[in-house]
Amino acid sequence: MSTRSTVRLDRRIAAVVTLLPALGTVAAIALWVVGYVPGAVELIVFAVFYFATALGLEVGFHRHVTHKAFKAKPWVRVALIALGSMGAHGPVNWWASTHRRHHSTSDGDGDPHSPHLSGEGAGGRLKGLYHSHMGWLFVGESTRPAGWEKYVPDLYQDPLVFKQHMAYYRWVWIGLALPPLICGLVSRSWMGVLLGFLWGDMVRIFAVSHCIWALNSLCHVIGRRDFHTTAHDRSRNSLLLAIPTFGQGWHNNHHAFPASAFTGLHWWQIDPGGLFVRVLERLHLVYDVQRPTAELIEKKRIAP
C-alpha cells in the first residue's frame, strides 16, 4: 500500500473512531430522554468494560509495553494488551511508537500531539488544543511519519507483543461483540442488544477516548508542575483526570519519571493503575517493578 493510500486509510479509521462513538453517545442520551433508560445490566457492563479497557491501555499499553515499567507473566501480558486493544486506540506497536515519539520531543518539534505548536494568540491556542486532543489523528505526519517503526524495534522482536499487535482488530471486534451479547442474553430482548451496544460500546469508547486524549491536550496546558522535565515539555498534573485515566492524570510526575510503574508520588495522589500493579506484584504475576528513588525524586523536584 502506498504512503498516500495509507494516510487516507488512517484518516478513515480516525473518522470512525472519533465520530461513531460520539454519534452513539448522542443516540444513547436521546433514547434515555424518550424513556429507554439504561438498566442495572447496561450500567454494570459499561463500568466493567470501561474499567477493563482503560486499565489495559494505561497499565498494559502504556506502563508495561511502552515504558517497560515492569515485567509480567506471559498470560498477564496477553490479557493486558488484549484489554487495551478493545479500547480501539490502535495496534499496540503503533501506539507505543507514537507515545515514545511524544516523550522524545514533548511539546517541541516532532511531538505528534502537542497543544503548543499551532501558533500564538487565542486562535492558535484553540487550534493547538483541538490538534492535541484528537485533530492529530487526521494528520499523516503525526500518526505515521516515515520511519515510525524505528521507535519500537524491541517490540517487533518480541513475539508475544507482535502477535497481539497483529491481532488488534480481532480484539476490537471481540470488545464490540461482548457488551450487546451480554445485555441481550440477560434481557432476552433486542432492545437489550441495542442498549448494550450503545452503553457498553459507544459510550464506553467515547468516555475512555476523551479522557485519554485530554492527557495530551489539557494535561499539557492546565495544572501544576512539581518536577523538572525535558527542555520543551509543559506536562502538568491533574487530579480531575487521575481517576478516570487510572493515574495518568499525574502527567508531570509521569514525564519526570517515565519508566516508573507508579505515577502517584504522594499518599494523596490516587493512582489506580499503580495500585493494580502493586496487587499483581504481591501475587507474583509481575516483577522487576520500576520505582524512582527518593534521591531522584528530590533531585527533579521544582523548588517552591
Automatic annotation (TrEMBL):
The keyword Ribosomal protein does not apply. It comes from the Bacteria. Keywords: Fatty acid metabolism, Iron, Lipid metabolism, Membrane, Oxidoreductase, Transmembrane, Transmembrane helix. Residues 46-270 form the Fatty acid desaturase domain. GO terms for cellular component: membrane. The keyword Transport does not apply. One of its GO terms (molecular function) is oxidoreductase activity, acting on paired donors, with oxidation of a pair of donors resulting in the reduction of molecular oxygen to two molecules of water. It is found in: Membrane. The chain crosses the membrane at residues 12-37, 43-62, 168-186, 193-215. InterPro entries: Acyl-CoA_DS (IPR015876), FA_desaturase_dom (IPR005804). One of its GO terms (biological process) is fatty acid metabolic process. Pfam families: FA_desaturase (PF00487). It is a multi-pass membrane protein. Belongs to the fatty acid desaturase type 2 family. This is Acyl-CoA desaturase.
